[in-house]
Every structure is written in structure tokens, then in C-alpha cells.
Amino acid sequence: MPSGDNHGPDGKALPSPHVELHGRLICENAEQSDLVRRHLPEHIRLTLAEDGCLSFRVEETGDPLVWTVAERFADWASFEAHQSRSRASAWWEATAAISRDFSISGPARES
């Protein structure tokens, strides 16, 4: 195993030192999917410009109503700043009613 690949000596994946969100946007109909398609380019542009954003992908799947989401941020502060910015954006205003199925992982938060 190459060093720095985020796997332990037994080959099992180690927890990421970054904050990661993985999941899906699940649209109810074609109109919601069109909203995602229309607002997504600007949302991606703004997110990738944020301090601490390491990667951000929202991609269509084989189902025209389902989109995969994968985000990675340097730390909890940058992830939370993204969440705050996103909630105050045209993206959120347009897509708030769309179902989200996400899991978030990262290092333990400091008290």
C-alpha cells in the first residue's frame, strides 16, 4: 500500500481527516430536476471558491430524478461556513423542497 493513501497497515480505510458529505438529492418530478439543473452551475462555482472546499460534485444518475452529491471540506469550520452560505443562497431558495439523503463524516469535533 502506498504511504499517504489513508489506509492502515491492514489495508482498511482510515477515517478521513476532512469533513465529507455523501448522498443524494431526490427530486419528486421533472420540474424539481430542472430546478437543480438550472441552479447547479452557480452553486458549484460559488462552493468551489469557498475557503476550505477541497472538492464538490453534484452529478446526475441514471435516474433523471436522482443526483449524487459528494463534498469534502478541510475542516468543520469550512463545512459549516458552506452550510451557512448555501442556506442563504438562490440555490437553497430554489431547491429547499427537494429531498436530501446525506451522511456526514469527519474528525471528532473539538469541545
UniProtKB/TrEMBL annotation:
The keyword Acetylation does not apply. One of its GO terms (molecular function) is monooxygenase activity. It holds the Pfam family ABM. It comes from the Bacteria. Keywords: Monooxygenase, Oxidoreductase. The keyword Cell membrane does not apply. Gene3D superfamilies: 3.30.70.100. Residues 30-91 form the ABM domain. This is Antibiotic biosynthesis monooxygenase. The lineage of its organism: Bacteria, Pseudomonadati, Pseudomonadota, Alphaproteobacteria, Sphingomonadales.
